[in-house]
User: What shape does this take?
Amino acid sequence: MALIIQTLVNAISLSLIYILFSSGLTLIMGIFDVCNFAYGDFLMVAGFVTYFMVTKWGLPYILAPFAAMLLVSILGIVFEKGIYYPMRKRGGLEPALATFGASSLLETGALLLFGGMPKGVRPLITGNIHLGTTFLSLSRIPVIVGGLLLMFLLFMFVQRTRFGLAIRALQQDQEAASLQGMNISNTRIIVWVIACCLTAAAGVLLAPIAYVDPFMGSGLLLKGFAVVIMGGLGSIPGAMIGGVALGLVDSFGMTYLGTASYMFAFGFIMVVLILRPQGILGKR
Amino acid sequence: MKFSKWQWIIPLVIVVFLFALPTFMHSTRYISLFNQLYLNIVLAMGVYSVWTVGYINAAQPVFYGLGAYTAAILMIKAGWSFWLALPIAGIVPAVIALLFGFVGLKLKGAYFLFLTIALCDLIIWIFISWKGLFNGQIGFYPIPQPVLHIFGYKVNFESSLTPYYFLTLILAIITCLVYFKINGSRLGRVWDSVGKNEDLLANTGISVFTQKQISLSLSCFFAGLAGAIYAPYMKVVSPSGFSLWQGIWIVLGVLVGGIFSPIGAIIGTVFMSILYLLLQHYSQAQPLILGLILVLVLLFMPTGLVGLPVRIRNKIKDITGNKAVQTDEKKVI
Assistant: This one.
């Protein structure tokens, strides 16, 4: 029983990370219709920002999200201006390959600059709670609180503001949106900034409960893709359902099955794809 | 692709030259480089042909590994001869690709790429974890050598690499011939249109999904054959021999050569092999350089090395004020 509760708490915090990460991914992929293979490295950059600010320079943890969001947003705008916009008329495959190249650039760059050793970040709240035989780590609290808060903000932004409306319009039809007098290139940048903020937040929240290393993002990226494909492309509610599902499968699989859980997650995606190729909440 | 009256001479001269090469090139190092190049060309042709139907298969080395494992298991555990194991080693990856295609090929191109990346990890993980069949990290060593008698002489596979040179060369030539033939035939045009406009083709009554399946399975069949030769050639088959990065090198080769013609795949693979030699001692920085090449080629050289002459000619004509020749990717060569 104790193990189940511990795993459940882990699953919740992991799910929130997955949800934050993959809602940004689904936003980008839904609007630009291009896979972004460098998205995981945005998270890695945020992780390194956290590491440098908190561990190296001793700044308070609260500042890390803002710095990370700023830096990662700049990186995202570089991607938009350098890869996505120039290659927007060339189908989905070639820009996706270009982001793959950019991803290996960022990863190897980080590896050469900072080394491959995993680095730790001190959590905001340390200590454990004992509930009978159950140990719950308090370091999960910022993840759960921050994750829920950001999800709420994202939901309000997309559903209740003019920018959110613009994003949803862009998702349906870029040309029609442009004919209505929308400024497409500005809206594209807004989409990038939102998605980058989400992944930066995921990176900052993940850094204390996991390790920071150059490849932390690429492992998560495959899971992010899995969530996006499972939940349906461009659907944020779908990403939430997919994130929770994968978080549960991952945590319980890791606890009870060991490394075989990787195959389990892969099999899960395959089954979803066979039954519903457009994803759980996707539209054809 | 159609050869005019004299054009077939060039490939013939190259092939004759390559067949004669071992007579005056005795260095084992160079022979093994060429062997690896020929095997890579086989893989690259497969990646190219799947690319024409709109998919990038980064898991090609894993299908190659499946071929190698099939051959090794059949030869060691079942005691089959190499020549009997060779076709089976092609068929097994082809069937697995067929099964994978039932799910993967229903997705769009970029998601397929993601799924092949995941498949790469998955299959290598199976190689390591399924100790009963694949022998875990150790793999198989030593692999029995093929036995071949030509006119009563026994070919020396044991101590010389030259027989493997001919074996890999013949496989590469057969693969290239098959793909060039397909490229000029109706099937090649169908595949090309699958990549260009799937919906339109589906309206003419052709099953797009079947075409994609055929293309993927055929490419994995050849990859499996290459793997079957790799197994006795390296004498060892282990999970560390096959990785995603190998697949990225091959995809990059096809891209650098030019994705509009099978010749591009060959030229690109040769180019990447040379690059690999140059970068051999900087293994840490390799992904950095590969990533840089990938981005730069995609942004500034979309037609690859093969399309470069036409692009340069057009640029010159642009500058001198003449009207540029219409660039049709198919007519580049």
About this structure: The longest helix of chain A spans residues 2-32. The longest strand of chain A covers residues 128-131. The radius of gyration of chain A is 19 Å.
